[in-house]
Fold NADP-dependent 3-hydroxy acid dehydrogenase YdfG.
Amino acid sequence: MPTIAIVGAGPGMGLAIARTFGAQGFDVALVARNKEKLDGLVARLGAEGVTAAAFTADVLDRASLTAALAAAADRFGGIDVLEYSPAPQVSDPALAPVPPTAASPENLQSQIEYYLYGGVAAAQAVLPAMREAGAGTLLFTTGGGSVNPIPMLGNVNAAAAALRNWVLNLHNELTGSGIYAAHVAIGVWIGEGGPAGFPSASAEEIAPLYWDLYAKRDQAETVFLG
Ligand SMILES: NC(=O)c1ccc[n+]([C@@H]2O[C@H](COP(=O)([O-])OP(=O)(O)OC[C@H]3O[C@@H](n4cnc5c(N)ncnc54)[C@H](OP(=O)(O)O)[C@@H]3O)[C@@H](O)[C@H]2O)c1
């Protein structure tokens, strides 16, 4: 069975991507910080016939991330697809969004740690085995503001744009290697309860595009606008 590892696996995109790949015969490694919440997702997937397992890690603690992905590779015999999409709680003061005029090295640093450094660390944990196999897929998710920034997300968008830039160049470098890298920018609110006037879509509506990227392997990026 091929395996997808989802870093930042929660009830929204994480679960929907797990279901999408699980329905195609993938085993699923779910990586996030909270074991209880992960176990709940593993049980839900299991009830739907998808084999999944939970691995705890914090993307801000890069050693824990590397260890979790190594454990997932051990458990499933390798990782064929890495998907990176942690989403911070809006209430987390350490990762609070600020507009560009309020950006500082400090409040940019925390976002860079979260998006760019976390994404790079996740990729570095799985790349050596993918290099050896001459095969693999690396998918990274950010918001639409990584492409078209909006003032209220000044520091978030800058860090997400840094991850996006690195992924697009990773795609360039890996072309012809058998390993495929791509970026997904989600330019809508996921689920219910978004800001008035802002477009929204369900995670289930968005998730098939990850399978399309994986299957077609011909784009460095998809921007989902609904
Ligand atoms: N939600 C939106 O409206 C929206 C809009 C545009 C783009 N996006 C992007 O879409 C992706 C998925 O978003 P989603 O809201 O659907 O998320 P989700 O898959 O429902 O959940 C993401 C999970 O990330 C985990 N997480 C948070 N901080 C972490 C950390 N430091 N280390 C490891 N895991 C961490 C959380 O679980 P734990 O608490 O267990 O760690 C959370 O449940 C993200 O890339 C996000 O940037 C979201």
